[in-house]
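tl;dr need the bound structure. longer version: we got a ligand (calcium ion) that a collaborator sent over and nobodys looked at where it sits. i said id run it. heres the input, straight from their email, havent touched it
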Amino acid sequence: MIKANNPDLESWIEVSVDSDFPIQNIPFGVATFKNGKTHCATRIGDVVIDLYELAGLGYLDNIGIDDLRVFKQPLLNDFIACGKAAWSVTRERISELFQKDNLTLNEADIDQSVFMHATSEVTMQMPVKIGDYTDFYSSIEHATNVGTMFRDPDNALFPNWKHLPVGYHGRSSSIVISGTNIHRPMGQTKPNDADVPVYGPTRLFDFELEMAFIVGKSTKLGDQISTEDAEDSIFGMVVFNDLSARDIQRWEYVPLGPFLAKNFGSIISPWIVTLEALDPFRVDTPTQDPEVLPYLKYTGKKSYDIHLEVLVQPENGSENKVCHSNFKYMYWNMAQQLAHHTVNGCNVNVGDMMASGTISGPTPESYGSMLELSWKGTKPLKLSDGSERKFILDNDTIIMRGYCKNNVVRIGFGDCITKVLPAK
Ligand code: CA
């Protein structure tokens, strides 16, 4: 067992039972502290730990990385580039320092305020500089639902869908940290009864419940990553809300795919949870039939049991859970996505982000977008304040949460939140 994942571990920092951040998590993020400084950080319970300050005091010595340099950065890229062994050793050291029976940092003469901060006193930042961003389309339920609504229920999936993980190149500039609010986008749409397109705010504002992984190892142009090696090239995961304008999308997407309907804002949860921390929650992926080509075959449990939920909160209203899904429903796993992405020699870089595509499950309450939940607006959802939603309205807040849970440990990602502001 990975030492830092031992379910028996407890921290001397208090952690409530429903916290996403027990000592077995040790995620990585970037935080701005009260003194205005921005450094790499981790979190236990409701305490954010400044890794640069910890390194400055010598507590991260001898873990095989240039700790002062990498943790001083306002981005995790340099740390991630240190490689999988370094991620693991760093987690283990942090785990040791904060275990209940270790008094190194919990003695009266230690000024904990140098490196420990209440979550309420820090501002989380984008944790990585994202180089390239790719969005897949890997949920069979989602692809089937969308194909059924927009094309033909009898041929909902295109012929390629079960043979390769369909994806497209997106834009990294508009991927933002949780808490960033997004204006309703303007754009071109073509109403059904119109002969020519019109310009205006999208009327069909939607979310897409996704997860994304962060590439942890660069490759050279021409190199491939095998499914067997793929997980060594993945640093960790975040919850990802891929905001979408369905009416803009429907008009613009032929023949090259989504463009402005998808790049006006995507929100990520603030803490990157390492694959190592998720390891106890591995599960099998769905059986793939027909059999895939050899380069997409894999062995072992390649998915993760991650509960996902979406809540919609009207202004001055309460949270309404509109979706409960799970990452394990994904037809294509991350190893296959990375193997496919590089099969042609396309190089990837540390910090690249790859999103799963909308994660819908088999039942209507597990659909990962308003498009599916309201079935193109034909089945409005009732909220607790009596109002209805076909799509997202101005001043609605969208909250996504993800967590793994077994009998002893809960590992979560923290909230992924955005509020939809009126069009500019
Ligand atoms: Ca998407």
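gonna send this back to them w/ a short note. The radius of gyration is 22 Å.
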